[in-house]
Amino acid sequence: MPSLPAAYVTTTLLDGVVNVGARPFPQDALGDDTVVIRPDYMGICRADAKEILGSRDVMEDRGPLFGHELVGTVAFAGSRTGFAEGDLVTLNPNITPSRTTGFAEYVFVHDTRERLDQAVVRVPEPHIRDGIWMPEPFACIVHALGKLLEHTRLPSLQGKSVGILGAGCAGLMFAMYARHLGASVSVFNRGEARRAFARDQGILAEGEIFALSDAEAEAHRDRYDVVIVATTVATAQLLETAAVMAADGGVLFVYGGTRKGDSFPAGRADVDTLRRQERIESVRHLGKRLRIAGAYGCFREDYEEGFRLHADHPRAFPLEKLTSRRIGLDDFPPLIMDIAAGKEDFPGKVLIKAAAQG
Ligand SMILES: NC(=O)c1ccc[n+]([C@@H]2O[C@H](COP(=O)([O-])OP(=O)(O)OC[C@H]3O[C@@H](n4cnc5c(N)ncnc54)[C@H](OP(=O)(O)O)[C@@H]3O)[C@@H](O)[C@H]2O)c1
């Protein structure tokens, strides 16, 4: 039996309130089908704030997302899991709801060997902690653009023009990958802070980042083969902006949040279903034929492709540069409550660094 503590620190999210505290280590949870991960780094995602606000539909087959981005080490591996103590891993939250929050010193994942093989993904970068980045959000982008190519039957985005609404973490990673696939990219962001972050970090060049405004939408009317909506919520207004910017025959790609019943244009394409079931549908709108598609989640293969891209093309994928701030686990509850309440907002990715092992 590995040396596991008598107590560990974890967070709880109850009735919209986040707390951190110590609780007894559940020795009885260490079954044959259990992997326990000790995270070194955890990432804060917009979905965490949404779950605090109750503004996100939780999928029963996957469970809540609160605390799902992490890189850590296997601290315990049950005999039927296929993992070993010391494995460097990350989590795919799209596979099993049988897991505890990632905002903790230890994370417990229980399932069959087959499902654990999808849910716990080995990290092939032994030095990732020296230039930390979060594999899960990138795997979702790899998956999403793969879906886009599949839907449009294109081998790459060579020569295509891609507009991206939102220069959050998702928008910036879309820009990196679409550029790598041969597209020219234009990213539109409402606030100046994220535009400045993208420029200052060298992720986007001057001619690749614009304000997200009616004037810019008009100036870029009918311009893009693909417009990706990567904002916190894919509101009808933002989808309309995307439709203005799309060329005739272009694709509106819905990545930002949608909820059951959302449609665009009003009462026509069911954008929530298109996104969650990763389908494509044609509509006529603004005198153009538009194809509306979306993507949701990712698989182990997407993580593996993400690691390959990062290792083979480090200049195209400066994922480490997305980190804007590092905090400790004790600082997390007030910070995430402020982010959820809209009192704090940080461009890029805020990471939580676990306390050093004693
Ligand atoms: N489909 C999937 O598989 C999948 C996976 C992961 C995430 N997501 C979605 O992607 C979304 C974005 O994630 P992220 O990590 O990039 O979040 P993020 O880093 O917090 O960025 C949020 C972005 O949304 C913009 N925004 C928010 N409200 C807006 C509004 N009313 N009008 C215009 N822009 C607005 C922000 O612009 P400002 O700078 O102006 O505030 C910012 O660019 C998440 O909320 C989630 O729904 C989808």
Task: Describe this structure as you would to a colleague.
The chain has 358 residues and is of the alpha/beta class. The chain folds into two domains: 7-132 and 320-353, Quinone Oxidoreductase, Chain A, domain 1; 136-294, 3-Layer(aba) Sandwich (Rossmann fold). Helices cover 27% and strands 29% of the residues. The protein has ten helices and 18 strands. It has helices at 46-53, 113-119, 135-152, 169-180, 192-200, 214-219, 236-245, 271-276, 300-312, 332-340; strands at 7-14, 17-24, 34-43, 69-77, 88-91, 107-110, 120-122, 161-165, 184-189, 209-211, 224-229, 246-254, 263-264, 269-270, 280-285, 288-294, 323-328, 349-353. Strands 3, 4, 5, 6, 7, 17 and 18 form a seven-stranded mixed sheet that branches. It has a seven-stranded mixed sheet with strand order 10-9-8-11-12-16-15, sandwiched between helices. A hairpin with a 4-residue loop joins strand 13 and strand 14 (269-270). Helix 3 packs across helix 4. It is globular, with a radius of gyration of 20 Å. The two termini are 18 Å apart. The mean pLDDT is 95. Bound molecules: NADP nicotinamide-adenine-dinucleotide phosphate (NAP). Residues 45-47, 137, 140, 166-171, 189-191, 194, 212, 230-232, 238, 255-257, 295-297 line the site of NADP nicotinamide-adenine-dinucleotide phosphate.
